[in-house]
Amino acid sequence: TLYSASDSQSQSRRLGMYKKVPSVIFRTVKKRTQAGDAPTVEWSDRNSAEMFAKTRSILFSLPGAFTPICSTFQLPLFDSLYSDFNALGIDKIFCVSVNDPFVMEAWGDASNVKNVELIPDGNGEFTRKMGMLVHKDNLSFGMRSWRYAAIIDDQQIEAWFEEPGFADNSPEDPYGETAPQALLDFLRA
Hints:
This protein is α/β, with parallel strands linked by helices.
């Protein structure tokens, strides 16, 4: 049975369509090299179905790398609480954002995360297929993800957490339902 932290009707409609993680290819930076004046990049393509297969994981999504709530609270707290999640049966923690691979790589380096894998959804394909892509033109962000989190067991969404007020160009950026503590409370219950 799928658990949802909220009873909103629109959220239930999205969850009804997406009980399984969609299969998309994420392009990430595998390695950078410098040969003389020409920098080169070695890419790694990762399939989301493979990433979430045969593992119990947490996926959380946020509006953008380097943004205040994401950088100050959400990412560092998920990273620092990894051992607590692991003790409750979570193998991996993934953070997805509608940012390009270079931004996500730089954010990971600047944040010094050790336990959260940062996933660039540069085109927003995964976020769109999850039903969580919103316009954030009011902030000059373009298309971004609404803040959500999920507990995923072998590609199946076991529990869903979503911030209230899902809407294009929302003046609010709520944070609480998707905080690491909310997921820990669910896992401990």
